[in-house]
Known about the structure:
Layout: E1 41-45, H1 53-66, E2 72-76, H2 78-81, H3 88-105, E3 113-116, H4 122-131, H5 136-140, H6 143-149, H7 158-172, E4 178-180, H8 186-202, H9 204-209, E5 221-223, H10 258-267, H11 286-299, H12 303-310, H13 315-341, H14 344-373
Parallel strand pairs: 1-2, 2-3, 4-5
Helix pairs in contact: 3-13, 4-7, 4-14, 7-8, 10-13, 11-12, 11-13
Amino acid sequence: MTGKSKQEHGGKPRKAAAPRKARKPRGGGAAGKARPIRERVFSGVQPTGNLHLGNYLGAIKRFVELQESHECIYCVVDMHAITVWQDPEALTRNTREVTAAFIAAGIDPDKQIVFNQSQVSGHAELAWIFSCVARLGWLNRMTQFKEKAGKSRENASVGLYAYPNLMAADILLYRATHVPVGEDQKQHLELARDIAQKFNTDFAESCARAGFEGGFFPLPEPLIAGPATRVMSLRDGTKKMSKSDPSDLARINMTDDADAIAKKIRKARTDPDPLPSEPAGLEGRPEAENLVGIFAALSGTSPEDVLATHGGSQFSDFKKELIALAIAEIGPIGAEMQRLMSDPAEIDRILCRGAARARQIADPNMRTVKDIVGFVVE
Length: 378
Ligand code: TYM
């Protein structure tokens, strides 16, 4: 998609714009000059229950690493969650649980911004503008909508369909440049880049008038790296580990205790052969590949290193070491999550403080976007 012209995307061809009264550049920038965009990380997790090892290794663990080098904004995306039915009490509890997971995993809410999406109205406002920028054809290609809506598309909420526009708004409201996510979010990130690009092109002149030569939005980079960008089900190595898998044995929950973790890994499906000594030998062995990837991610190494050490081992021995690693990393996080969850008022205070800080970035950006679009602003 990226790189096609606006007409190919189905956008209205641009007519020569009638000259508008020059507006004062906002944000202190001089009109006509490209301004450098500072690096900023944004990512989100849905509060839909059963946070699992895939969420941790594919996303949250990376969030923690990035806070050492970047300004980070981490969001509990409650507005995304309601694209499918959520029981209100469970939604509140799950919002607090994701917040607790962020903090228990090591995100510092005093240094970084941690908040829930619905407390910052700019997400919804920008999502609407993006719904008018994105093309139906783009959304029609989204595989996650097809998977989630299944056969009963007519019954899916409009929000589920428009979800990627809201996701683009989440990121771009903060003009974020880097987005750590698991592999399953790659297509949504590509769409966010397309939306940013189309907005910058459609509104090129008024962006420049507002002091943003070259466009207002950065094209956000997905950060999808490491050995666990797609953690698979422990019961079926061809299926993604997911919050909604009916079998609890398919995933390790971030709140599982040591016994549950040990039991699930012991029962994890494998094949009868010993481990190969090189990654090429994992071809056609999805369960083995998955356990090796998890091992590598938990030990901070690579599948090559894991197989160099464990090549030739039986799964029974390999699993013993994997259990020890998983308990050492997930066990304390789960225990800390439980402790934090026992004081919901404190979690709510953290979210409120985070939302106030998020608004300090979002509000001026939203004002500039409105100005660029041509809305009359105060
Ligand atoms: P969500 O809530 O489904 O998942 C949160 C994060 O966990 C990653 N993930 C996985 N990684 C590896 N293996 C798995 N099996 C696995 N399952 C989930 C996801 O890729 C994600 O990074 N649309 C997003 C939430 C979102 C968002 C955003 C993300 C909303 N707005 C803006 C980034 C930026 C979602 O549904 O994630």
